[in-house]
Design brief:
Layout lengths: L2 H26 L4 H25 L26
Helix pairs in contact: 1-2
Length: 83
């Protein structure tokens, strides 16, 4: 895989980490509007990154959560344990 694959995957993982942490924080601080604004910003950023990644490298998720071009793309990218 090209270096760009790993760079984009790293960016997605970083945004996912922030979203998990913000989710946990907002569970205990639901009125924190600044944290909610940051969460929504990161959620939008993640959607854009995921879309860009899937256009270039194929689906990130299976079971109907991501589209696949023809031919079936799951066999074309490294498995999670190979990254």
């Amino acid at each position: 895989m090209p270096e760009h694959f790993y760079t984009m995957l790293h960016e997605l993982q970083a945004v996912d980490f922030v979203l998990v942490e913000l989710t946990l924080y907002l569970d205990t601080h639901p009125l924190d509007s600044q944290a909610l604004q940051q969460y929504n910003h990161c959620a939008q950023q993640r959607m854009q990154l995921a879309h860009q990644f899937e256009v270039e490298f194929g689906p990130l998720k299976s079971f109907g959560q991501s589209f696949s071009r023809h031919p079936w793309q799951w066999v074309e990218t490294p498995w999670p344990w190979q990254v």
